[in-house]
Design brief:
mainly alpha, elongated
């Protein structure tokens, strides 16, 4: 390792603060819409289809 890259924070003697970006409101709206659709699709199409498939003889 070169001398310009310290091996740890203790040797560098500085505090690091990592700040992320806040998520916009419309991204939350997209995720909420996705999960509402996923639940609707599962209840409307997947559950009845599974019932039919599991009850029908091969």
């Amino acid at each position: 390792m070169s001398s310009s890259e310290p091996s740890s924070v203790q040797t560098e003697q500085q505090h690091h603060r990592y700040a992320g970006n806040t998520i916009p409101w419309y991204v939350h709206l997209i995720w909420i819409s996705f999960w509402i659709f996923a639940v609707y699709y599962t209840l409307r199409f997947l559950v009845p289809a599974l019932r039919i498939e599991l009850n029908s003889p091969p």
